[in-house]
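Lecture 7 notes. Example A: sequence first, then its structure tokens.
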Amino acid sequence: MGRRPARCYRYCKNKPYIKSRYCRGVPDPKIQIYDVGRKNAGIEDFPLCIHLCSGEYEQLSSEALEAARIVVNKYISKVAGKDSFHMRVRIHPFHVLRINKMLSCAGADRLQTGMRGAFGKPTGVVARVNIGQIIISVRAADKHKAVVIEALRRSKYKFPGRQNIVVSNLWGFTPYTREQFTKYATQGRMADLGAHVKVKSGKGPLNDKSVLIVRKKPVYLPEPAAAAKPAAAKPEAKKEAPKAAAKAN
């Protein structure tokens, strides 16, 4: 018995039903790779970031996510090169689908019980997405903007419903705009984390790793000039009486 069409499980009708110790025997998702391309590229190599966003509140199957990943990877690798981008699938299929299998052979009415005990058994997994939620993100160089947009446009045909392509004003996969990224980089406040960065704040201990580096250097201030001491009064020399006066006395 083949898979049911995706229209049977498109809408989010019930609570999330995930794999657990109570829900066993769940098949593995079709998509196993979520990062494609040059994953170890420096943050300064790929400043452009473009997203594929969902326009509906729906469920996307793991088979559709794998098909979209292959489309984007093949097109960009063929046109721009396999090392010219880094793609990341932002949603993961955790919701478990169920099916109540019905027999269709001769004498099936004697074996099955209709709608009695119709909870069903796991048959696949899907990802639940909201309106405006990011499905796929691609970072690349500015010169490959048209190629990335075309690849994401082709991936839209693998999903039901409506999707939107959004060109982000942020630098790569970081949460900072281009102006903020340039400012922090010139200030030397960026901590490289691979595809992401962390901005050093002024908080924390004051050591060599903090932004506010404190270096205790001796400060040589000019000593205050010594006040000029008044010259000591010389003892007045006794005026010698004129010898003539002494003789007169």
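Example B, a different protein, same format:
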Amino acid sequence: SLCVVTLFLLLTGFQARYRTTPSAKGKKSQRRMEQDEFANRKTLFGITVYNACLLGCMLLNVSTKGSIGSFETMGISFAESHFGLSAAVAGTIVSINGMVGVASLLSMSFLGRLLTDIQMIIGGITVCAVGIISFASLQSVENGAQNSIVHYCVGIFMIYGIGYPIGHTAVIGLFSKVVGRRPQGTLQGWFASAGSLARIIFPVTSGYIAQYDDITTVFIILFVVLVISNIFVAMSSRTLNALSQ
């Protein structure tokens, strides 16, 4: 719903929603003129390519932040019920992998020289999705399951250590590049607000699903959301790359 409101404001209120039209007084490169012309084309939905890419990046922010928010909410209780770990041990494992995630963030400059934003987004989301879905088939300790703590450590490492830090940071970078060389405060504010709202709605919804169905269903839904996000990025990669140059 917040993304719909954001789209409405982009169409009606934000003067910077269109690429600058070349003027006779200013000189612009042919490449920049072609990029601006492409950005201002109308899509099938009646909005510009530029607006569509902004909305798409916001939806990516919603899916990634919402998914990690849901997993954070369920993670400790899941460790207790399916791995027999205490809250202290599970929290320590998450914290250690959070430190690994910080190291991943510090290496973004190096990764940026090897991979594009699109590749980092797809790779990060894929690793995160695989880590989440790896828990979906597990039975609880109450049902006699003896799940390996190594499985939990590897899954948490994929989610917190690699997948989310790299994938979501690349989404932020891509959004900033698509916005372009212009004041970004307002759009960045809406971008952050969409992610914050996702961290509220996703965990609440996941809680109801876990209560009335099962926590493994939550993992399957989060996996599907992330896969759909990756499909969107892959299908829109040319357009996103063109506008982020």
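Note on Example B: Residues 77 and 239 are 41 Å apart (CA to CA). The two ends are 30 Å apart (CA to CA).
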